[in-house]
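User: I'm preparing a small set of examples for a lab meeting where we compare how different chains pack in three dimensions. I only have the primary sequence for this one, and I'd like the structure in C-alpha cell form so I can line it up with the others. Please keep the answer compact; I'll paste it straight into my notes.
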Amino acid sequence: MGHADTLLAMGGAFVAAAFFARLGGRIGLPTIPLFMLAGILLGPHTPGFVLVEDAHDFEMLSALGLVLLLFYLGLEFHLDDLKSGGKRLLTAGGVYLLLNVGAGLGFGFVLGWGVREALVLAGVLGISSSAIVTKILIDLGRIGRPETRLILGVIVVEDIFLALYLAALQPVVAGAHGLADTALQAGKAFGFLLVLAAAARYGTRLVGRLIDTRDNELLVISFLGAAVLVAGVSEVLGVADAIGAFMVGLILAGTPSGPRIRELVHPLRDAFAAIFFFAFGLAIDPGDLASVAGPVAAAAALTVVMNVVAGLCVARVYHYGSQPAAEIATTLVARGEFALILAAMAAGAGLDARLAPFIAGYVLVLAVLGPVVAGRAHVLAGALRAAGRMLPGGRAPAAVADGGTGEEAGADGGTGEEAEADGGTSEEAEADGGTSEEAVADGRPEAASVPVTAQAARSCASSSTSSDPAEAER
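Assistant: Understood. Below is the C-alpha cell output for the 474-residue chain.
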C-alpha cells in the first residue's frame, strides 16, 4: 500500500468508525460492535466499496490499539478495590468465573474444534466487557446503587483473571512442543509477570521520580514509550504484548503522575482502540458468520443463562432482594473487547479458522443484547417475586426469601443511623436508594435499602465514569 493509499485508508477508517458510532449512539448501541461492523462492511469480503484490501495493512495500528487498551486497564486497576471488598467479593467474582469460564470450556469441547480452541472459548465466554457493562450502568442510572459496587468489583476480579489467563494461555496456543516446553514457556511468562508485579508493588516511588514532569508532552512520550517497549519485550519472551502493557499501566497507576496519565492517554486509547476493532472487522467474511450462526446462538443463550444463575447466587451471598438480584444477574451479560483480544491471539497462532467469525458474531450479538437484557431486569425481578409467592408458606420477607435474614441484611446494608454516620442523612439514603416502601417493593429489606451513602455513591460514580469510553463509553 502506497503512502497516499495508507493515509486514505486510515482517514477513511476513522471517519467510518465515527459515522457508525454516531448512528448507533442514537439508538443506544455501544460503539465496539459498530466499529467492527464498519470494518466488515468496508472490508475485502463484502460487496461494494472496499476501503482496505488487506487487513494486514492495519496490523501495527491494531496492535498499538490493543496495547493502549490494556495499558489503560492497568491504570484503572486498584488493589484497594479488592481489599475493600474482602472475601465476599472474591467469592462473588469466583462464582462468576467458575460458572462462565467452566461453561465456556465445556462448550468448546462440545464444539469439537480442538483443545486449544476450547481454552480460547473458555475465556471468550467467561469474561464480561467492562467497557460495555460500565456504560450500561451509567445509561440506566444505576451507578450509585449498592449492587453496582458489587458488579464493578466482579469486573475487577475478572480483569485480574484475564491477565493471568492470557499469560498462561500464550504458550499453549502458540504451540509449545511437549509438557516440558509448555512449562518452560509458562515459567518465563509468569517470571516476567512477577518481576513487573514486584516493580508495581515496591518500585513505584523510583518509577514516579523517573517519569515525573510538569510538561504533558514529555509525560505522554515517556509513558507511551514505556508501554510499547515493555509490550515488545513481553512478545519476545513469549508473553502476550498486551499483558506487558497492562503491567506498565499497573506500575504507573501507583505513581503521583497516575491521574494525569489516565487523562492524557484517553484520546490515544480511544482512537487506536477504534482502529483495533475496525481492523478485526476487516478480517471477517460475512459468509463465514452464517456458517457459525448455530454455535453463536447457542453460546449467546448459554451466556445469558449462566450469568443469570451466577447473579442470583451472588445476590444470595450478599442477601439482596429480587430487584437488585435481577440487576446483578442481567448487567454482566455483554461481551466485547476481551473476547476480541483472545480472538486476535488465536488468529496469530493459526488456530481453527472458524474461531474468528464465531467470536465476531458472538460479540456482535451480546454487545447488542447486553443493554437490552439489562434494561429488562424488572421482568426477571417480577418472575423471582412470583416464584417466591409460589413457595410453601406464601410470600416470605424479601431478604429471607433471597437467602438471608432481615438481621443479616441489616448487617450488610446498615441502618438509617449508620447511613447518617457515614456521611448521608436518612433522607439522602432514600434519595440514593429509594424509599422504604420502594425498597420493600423491589425486594430489598428496609434496612438494606441504604447500604451505600451519598458520598460512597458519588465515589462509585466517579471511579466508573473515568473508566472507559470504550468504557465511558464505559
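A couple of notes for your slides: The two ends are 35 Å apart (CA to CA). The chain is about 75% helix and 0% strand.

User: Perfect, thanks.
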